[in-house]
Structures are given as C-alpha cells and as structure tokens.
Specification:
The chain has about 190 residues and is an all-alpha fold. The protein folds into two domains: about 100 residues, RNA polymerase sigma factor, region 2, helix turn helix motif (Rna Polymerase Sigma Factor, Chain: A), CATH 1.10.1740.10; about 90 residues, Orthogonal Bundle (Arc Repressor Mutant, subunit A), CATH 1.10.10. Helices cover about 65% and strands about 0% of the residues. It has eight helices and no strands. Helix 3 crosses helix 4.
Amino acid sequence: MEQLRDEILAGQAASGDMSAFEELVTRHRMSVYRMARSITGNHEDADDAAQEIFIRIFKALGTYDSGRPFKPWLKRIAFNTSLNVRRSGRTRAREVSVDLLPDPPDPSPGPDQRIDSDRAVSGIQKALSTMPAEQRATLLLRTVEGMSYADIARATGVRVGTVMSRLSRARGRIQDVLEKSGELVFQRGEKA
C-alpha cells in the first residue's frame, strides 16, 4: 500500500477497507503498546489493552473527523483504554521495563560505563515505577513518541499546562531518585 497519511487511511478504514485498517495497526501498534505498558505497568495487561484499543479504534472510526490529526485521536483512545484496564483491577504485578527507555548513546561502553549505565537504568526504572500512570504516560508521549505538548494535551484530555506540570514532576522524580542513589552525574541547574 502506498504511503498514505493516517487521516486518509482512517477514512478508508471507516468505509470498510480492512487493508487500510491493517496498515494503521501496523504503523501504530508499537506506540500503542508502549503507552499501554507505561500505564498498566506490565506486559500482559499492556498486550490485552493494546488489543482492546484497536478494537475500540475500529468501532469508533465512523466518528473520527478526518479533518483533524489522527495520532492524538488514537492516543486519546489508547490512554483512556489503558487507564480503564488499570482501574478495572485486571492489572497484574506492576513492573516497569527497560523497553520504555531509549538505548544508550554509546553502543560499546567499557565495563565501568556499563555498570554506571545499569545503575542509572535501575534508578530510572525505580522512579518510573513510583510515578502515577498519568505522569508516566505523559513522559512516554513526550520523550519516546516525540509528541508536542498540544498533541499530548489532546491525547490525554488535559490542558497544556497540566501536560507541562506532569512532565516537570516526572522529570523531577527521576532526578530525585538518581540523586538519592548517587547515580546523577550533574546537579539540578547544570547542563550535561
């Protein structure tokens, strides 16, 4: 299938074109899974939520306004569905995975760097596991998905100021955990 915009594919899928819907699923399945994982806290619930998200998207395609961006609409459904899965009590033991974190910049660190990196990842995982789901999801949408504040606000149903506040708190929590564990390389206010 030629590279069509998501909005066009959504319109085609709403008209019954299953290959268009399959293309949307292929394009967005990893980002939907990452969001679900960040909110539910474990692979099994995230996998269940991702399936439920795409079922809801398929059912809601008739209400999608193709004049508006598709990604924030999809993320809003993913966010709300993931929260519902988490709130429903179906969630399993909470865990935060290294899969949510970006790869280290140096592909071949030395032994000392590897130990430091492992400690930092462990500290970040600890900080992520103590964050409310809304903060984790907002941080994921910004840092991993690269979404703008406005798109995150649309996807999560809050104001831009709330997005900025959640990001600030999430980053502060990570920094606090790393400072307490002695893994923070630079102090607040300094640039890396």
